[in-house]
Write a structure and sequence with these properties.
heterodimer; A: alpha/beta; Rossmann fold; 5-stranded parallel beta sheet; 13 helices; B: mainly alpha; about 75% helix; globular
Chain lengths: ~375, ~525
């Protein structure tokens, strides 16, 4: 009898612990932001894990890669398979660890790193850290990225508040997002166990145009110091070493954008670095006129990010270099690739049609991350 | 290392795991080491103050014991008549008293300098204007963790040795562990050496019953602190931050919300302390007996922060009320005012002093002194009026149960909660003005027009607070006649299930992380 009672007690205790763990899992899935409507940026990074086939080119960097390079356009024109792993204001150490994670799973022919983030030497905003890191699967790369990215007593660039991020909250996101319990939406329930795709191999599409004439831009503010910080440079060095150790070509790129201003002093440092390390540096910003970028029609937010039209011009230009100078192969003849990329092309074309329809009906975009 | 920080939870988990694998003989040393680490995690540079207090207390206890031993030796060494022996004993006691007084003075001096020096200097300068830059003379050290608690416990130890309640401890590490035992450093409870000294050095085995109860208690404490206290703190801080704007109904809201906050904060912290200590095999005394069910302020103080009240009764109130000068003054009062006043005089003097000290123990500021004196006045008035109450009850036949009892409970709750506003507004004038406005500013529509949602709490937050308070109320009622510990005795599965449920609720609904200030327990600041 006593033994029976003990077994029963033990069973209830084990059940209680298991039920609690299940409840915590459900609460976590429910509370973490889904980024399926409003701002979509937080959903970008995780989409890499859905890829079935390896890529010949990987793009890493901030918003200047995810809005300026279209892997589907690259595929269509050159047959190059690629993926863009970028998020808003993605810092160089985040790009480094994302790249390290990808190189643990595949070996592309080339990696293209957009250099804008070299200007940041310290973590900037908790929100952007989350957008870049929450989508990463738990791994040593993620933990290292978290360690390098956390604001620890620094002021958040947006709110100005001193922020102390908790390492544990990246491992157990409920610790960060539990307070969303009172503001959950139907999306939080709908996407608990899976999310829709919002990018095209990491490319964030926008067909609308909100251009700017270079004359309308505010005067350029001189800086006290233009030198890239030691941490940023250190991670660029690490990226070079990492690519070398995997036998991958590292290419530097500066995407075309009028805001934020890309200073000549930045440009000189990147050129000097590329030259010193024998790296190809593609300055699309400088080539913008030659490739037909018109900032009045090719951006969707007054010169910061390219829209579809601008992105396809940038992609075509970069693709030409990748194909001609680096001999990145054309895989369009490979059936396996062709069938996978056909699906991607369909999704791409459907989204173009959907965005154009909404644009025609409303005069502006409401969905697709346009408002949020 | 806040109780609510991940560091502390990891620290406690590792400690418990290691502690229960160690042989019994090693356990006290681990407790001492972890206590030192915990203390130093707040401000390592304050360790010398703790060490000083331990050394003084240890040496004082030994010295008092030696005086007695030597005295007894002298008395028993010769053949003295009864009167001579009596006189010798009196002399010995005087010497012991002197040593005890010196030790207590040294202990209190550290507290006085670190906690009250700036306050005293500021007030002296306000009177005498001896410097224009008084802040240059301020001590800017952070207060040692738990100094108000461990100093009083050490004083109690030396006084008890003097009173021969127990013998002086010969092992300095035992005294050190008694003073520095980390669960008590955060916010008490005060314990006496004869209660915890032996337990700390020889902790009892922790069986399934104790462990399951300890975890339930800890989970309950975290629930109260994180779900209720830290959530309601947002609104309390908003209300207290602009007392001039938030008057009338808002001041009443501050009264109620702060009563929730301090209850959940203090009792929650004590639950964690007692639970953790029990998991370590050391039973600490209870500090609360459903205080918001009290029918008078005097009763409230027998149910709230019990260990502080007992400490003051034992080490201040009783000695003061029988002190020589007070007795002499009573005689003067008897001669010049009357026997009735003389009878009351020692009690009144002791009560006023005790409440003054209680006030200033909570903080070196006038608002705390005013808070202490307000308690004192209400208690003395209520004492004076007690014959009238008795007549009223006798005449009307209304007892203290039923509706009248409920009225007394509500009355005491609001009275105490209003007195506590000295703590909230931290300014005597503002407190009188704000509490007064409850009766003079009739803006009670703000309870219904959404204004309460501008204080940093949403409707969902208020709903959660209401549910949390209902749970606390239900638990209090359930624990009324028979303690919950007894009710759940042997039902490990129930305890573990409830602990898990509370842990999940706290993780989901707790007010912690970015957007919330990680707040220390209120009583830790006292």
């Amino acid at each position: 009898m006593e033994k029976k009672k003990r077994i029963r007690t033990a069973a209830i205790i084990i059940a209680a612990i298991l039920v609690s763990l299940c409840l915590l899992d459900i609460a976590t899935r429910l509370c973490v932001p889904k980024y399926m409507s409003g701002a979509l940026d937080g959903a970008f990074i995780a989409e890499y894990y859905d890829e079935k086939l390896p890529h010949d080119v990987l793009f890493v960097g901030d918003c200047e890669v995810f809005s300026n390079i279209s892997p589907v356009a690259l595929w269509r024109e050159y047959g190059i398979t690629s993926f863009v792993r970028g998020s808003a204001q993605q810092l160089i150490w985040q790009s480094y660890y994302l790249l390290e994670e990808m190189l643990a799973h595949e070996t592309p022919k080339a990696v293209v790193f957009n250099v804008l983030s070299l200007k940041y030497n310290e973590p900037q905003k908790e929100a952007y850290n989350r957008i870049a890191l929450d989508g990463m699967k738990l791994s040593r790369y993620k933990l290292a990225a978290v360690e390098a990215s956390m604001l620890q007593g620094q002021r958040d660039a947006d709110t100005g508040e001193v922020v102390n991020e908790s390492f544990l909250s990246y491992v157990f996101p409920l610790l960060r997002y539990h307070s969303r319990w009172s503001s959950l939406t139907s999306d939080d329930v709908k996407y608990m166990y899976g999310r829709d795709k919002v990018t095209h191999n990491g490319y964030y599409m926008r067909v609308d145009a909100n251009g700017v004439s270079p004359d309308e831009l505010p005067a350029v503010r001189p800086l006290d110091d233009y030198t890239f910080g030691s941490t940023a440079t250190e991670y660029l060095d690490k990226m070079v070493t990492l690519c070398e150790s995997h036998g991958v070509e590292l290419i530097l790129m500066k995407a075309p954008s009028l805001v934020p201003h890309w200073y000549d002093e930045y440009e000189a440092q990147v050129e000097a670095y590329a030259s010193a390390h024998g790296l190809r540096y593609i300055n699309v910003l400088a080539a913008a006129n030659d490739i037909g970028i018109d900032y009045e029609t090719d951006t969707f937010d007054r010169g910061m990010h390219m829209n579809l039209s601008g992105a396809e011009k940038v992609t075509s230009y970069v693709g030409g270099i990748l194909s001609d100078e680096f001999g990145i192969p054309d895989r369009r003849g490979d059936e396996e690739y062709a069938s996978v990329w056909a699906e991607k092309e369909k999704f791409y074309d459907d989204m173009i049609a959907a965005q154009q329809k909404e644009l025609a009906e409303l005069g502006h975009l409401v969905h697709f991350g346009a408002v949020g | 290392m806040l109780y609510t920080s991940a560091e502390f939870i990891i620290f406690a988990a590792v400690l418990l795991a290691v502690y229960h694998t160690l042989p019994r003989v090693c356990k006290p040393y681990l407790l001492l080491l972890s206590s030192v680490i915990f203390f130093a995690s707040y401000a390592w540079y304050n360790l010398p103050f703790l060490i000083f207090t331990v050394l003084v207390t240890y040496a004082g206890g030994i010295a008092v014991a030696k005086v007695y031993e030597r005295g007894e030796g002298e008395i028993s060494s010769g053949e003295f008549d009864r009167e001579t022996k009596k006189e010798m004993r009196r002399r010995v006691k005087r010497r012991a008293k002197l040593v005890m007084a010196l030790t207590v003075t040294a202990d209190i001096a550290v507290l006085a300098v670190l906690k009250y020096y700036n306050f005293a200097l500021h007030n002296a300068n306000a009177l005498l204007h001896f410097t224009k830059n008084e802040s240059d003379l301020f001590i800017t050290l952070a207060l040692p963790l738990g100094i108000s608690f461990y100093t009083f416990m050490c004083v109690g130890y030396v006084v008890d040795v003097f009173r021969k309640k127990y013998s002086a401890e010969r092992n300095i590490l035992k005294v050190a562990l008694f003073a520095a035992y980390f669960p008590q450093l955060v916010q008490g409870p005060f314990s006496r050496y004869d209660e915890t000294g032996a337990q700390l050095w020889s902790p009892s085995d922790v069986g399934a019953d104790a462990l399951s109860w300890a975890f339930l208690r800890i989970a309950w404490g975290y629930f109260k602190k994180l779900v209720l206290a830290d959530r309601v703190a947002v609104a309390v801080n908003a209300l207290a931050g602009d007392a001039d704007a938030y008057r009338g109904a808002y001041a009443l809201a501050a009264v109620v919300l702060y009563s929730i906050r301090i209850y959940a904060d203090f009792t929650g912290g004590i639950d964690i302390t007692i639970g953790l200590s029990e998991a370590l095999g050391v039973k600490l005394r209870e500090n609360f007996i459903r205080p918001y069910f009290s029918k008078s302020i005097a009763e409230y103080w027998r149910r709230w922060h019990i260990s502080l009240g007992e400490w003051f009764r034992e080490y201040l109130f009783y000695p003061l009320s029988i002190a020589g000068p007070v007795g002499k003054a009573s005689k003067w009062v008897k001669k010049h005012v009357g026997a009735g006043a003389a009878k009351r005089f020692p009690v009144y003097v002791a009560t006023v002093i005790v409440w003054f000290v209680t006030g200033i123990w909570h903080g070196a500021a006038w608002n705390f002194i005013a808070w202490g004196m307000a308690n004192c006045v209400v208690i003395l008035i209520s004492q004076e009026l007690s014959p009238l109450y008795e007549k009223f009850h006798a005449k009307t036949g209304i007892g203290e149960g039923g509706a009248w009892g409920a009225f007394m409970i509500v009355r005491t709750y609001f009275l105490m909660s209003m007195i506590r506003m000295f703590d909230v507004y931290a300014d005597v004038g503002k407190t009188f003005s704000a509490v007064g406005s409850i009766f003079t500013t009739f803006n009670y529509g703000v309870f219904f027009d959404g204004s309460m949602l501008t204080l940093g709490l949403t409707g969902a937050d208020y709903a959660l607070l209401a549910v949390g308070c209902a749970v606390i109320f239900a638990v209090s009622v359930l624990g009324g006649k028979k303690s919950l510990r007894e009710r759940t005795s042997g039902r490990y599965a129930l305890r573990v299930s409830l602990s898990c449920l509370l842990a999940v609720a706290t993780l989901v609904f707790g007010a912690y992380g970015i957007g919330y200030d990680a707040s220390q327990f209120i009583y830790n600041q006292f």
